[in-house]
Specification:
This protein is an alpha/beta fold. It is built from ten helices and eleven strands. The strands form three sheets. The protein has a six-stranded parallel sheet with strand order 1-11-8-7-5-6.
């Protein structure tokens, strides 16, 4: 029996409409600022998407496009300016930065109260400690998808393939907080297939097309593919061999149209949350 396809577009539309309705009733609107250094095509496309999302939700949007030659101090000056602006509640620093810039120093400069993309160590520390704070957009989006389809991680074996700071590690923390039994796999995992076949919930975030085959999927498992790659024909794909895995899984996310739209919607939700924390009503 074919898997239930988890519709990220529909969930994203639902979340953004909830944000729009909240914002509509506010006297002082939430504000998001995006900082983009250089002309990376993917970052430019991502920035345009953020602008559209903010327009749909009624959130004030500002963008700082800085040249490739921007110095570290110039970048920090922009972040400090945005930290001080009352109309800006969230700051999103787009990656990758040019190689001559220190991304960690830039992340540390962002006020934790405006860290809606969850890159500051304070925000990540709160996540590990289980404190109430912003949640990284992609892992939080995965949890919202599970919630939308009434899939409770409690007591389930959860396997996360990938150990990045922006997806793999925080994803494991969120699953753990929801009482899942969590295994993190990576390039040094001896038998990836064996680990994946044990998973009731399998989250793939390795960035390697076709890494997860149907033979690595447990019958009836929930398979969530976070990665966005390109195959040999230039088409968008995830880590999972979707067509074959969909015949074994109970639930599965498509690429595109799965976690991506929800990630963007969670950023809008985080920006609204930041505005409320800043006293905007």
């Amino acid at each position: 029996m074919a898997a239930v396809v988890m519709d990220g577009k529909a969930l994203a539309a639902k979340i953004k409409e909830e944000v729009r309705l909240r914002v509509e009733g506010m006297g002082r609107k939430p504000g998001l600022a995006v900082v983009l250094v250089g002309e990376d095509p993917a970052a430019l496309s991502y920035e345009a998407g953020k602008r559209r999302d903010c327009q749909q939700c009624g959130i004030y949007y500002d963008t700082f496009r800085l040249p490739e030659s921007t110095t570290q101090e110039e970048l920090l000056d922009v972040i400090r300016l945005l930290n001080s602006r009352e109309d800006i509640d969230g700051i999103l620093l787009l990656l990758p930065l040019p190689k001559h810039l220190d991304g960690r120093e830039a992340a540390l400069a962002i006020c934790p109260g405006k860290d809606v993309d969850c890159v500051h160590p304070v925000t990540m520390g709160d996540l590990v400690l289980g404190m109430d704070s912003f949640r990284p957009c992609t892992p939080a989006g995965v949890m919202r998808l599970l919630e939308e389809y009434r899939i409770d991680p409690a007591g389930k074996r959860c396997v996360v393939v990938g150990r990045s700071n922006i997806v793999g590690k925080p994803q494991a923390m969120l699953l753990l907080q929801n009482h899942g039994t969590v295994t993190i796999c990576h390039t040094k995992t001896p038998d990836l297939g064996e680990e994946c076949r044990r998973a009731d919930i399998l989250v793939c975030a390795a960035g390697r097309p076709g890494l997860i085959t149907a033979g690595m999927v447990k019958e009836g498992a929930v398979v969530i593919d976070v990665s966005i790659n390109q195959d040999d024909q230039g088409r968008l794909c995830g880590d999972v061999d979707y067509d074959s895995a969909a015949e074994k899984a109970g639930y599965i996310t498509p690429v595109p149209g799965g976690t991506g739209p929800v990630t963007r919607a969670i950023l809008m939700e985080n920006t609204l949350t930041a505005a409320l924390l800043h006293g905007k009503r």
